[in-house]
Design a protein that fits this description.
With about 100 residues, the protein is an alpha+beta fold. It has one domain: Alpha-Beta Plaits. It is built from three helices and six strands, in the order βαββααβββ. A four-stranded antiparallel sheet has the order 2-3-1-4. A two-stranded antiparallel ribbon has the order 5-6.
């Protein structure tokens, strides 16, 4: 199942600073967490938006609940640097697994 995590500033975000100017320790832990998800083929695509204030993560998990739990376990989310919301996707076109709509 594909899901999309929309990631934005949380209560621990320092206003006026882009993502790479936030707490370097927390960001390092966040990147390590995301690399683990990527290496385990759960994170298909992710990263910050050009605005430096938001980002996304495209996940492949058995359920939306599992995707939510994995992102909520992110050290930057736990620290309040980021907040996230989730959308379950129903892809009609998916180059990762070859899905192509016939409608």
């Amino acid at each position: 199942m594909r899901s999309l995590a929309l990631i934005g500033p949380g209560p621990g975000w320092t206003d006026g600073r882009p993502v790479f100017d936030q707490d370097p320790r927390i960001l390092g832990e966040h990147l390590g967490h995301m690399r683990q998800l990527f290496d385990s083929n759960v994170l298909l695509f992710g990263g910050p938006a050009h605005d430096g204030q938001s980002g996304i993560a495209l996940l492949d998990t058995p359920s939306l609940e599992q995707a939510t739990a994995l992102i909520e376990d992110d050290p930057a989310v736990r620290a309040g640097l980021f907040e996230s919301s989730f959308r379950r996707l129903t892809p009609s076109s998916d180059s990762f697994d070859g899905t192509r709509s016939t409608r």
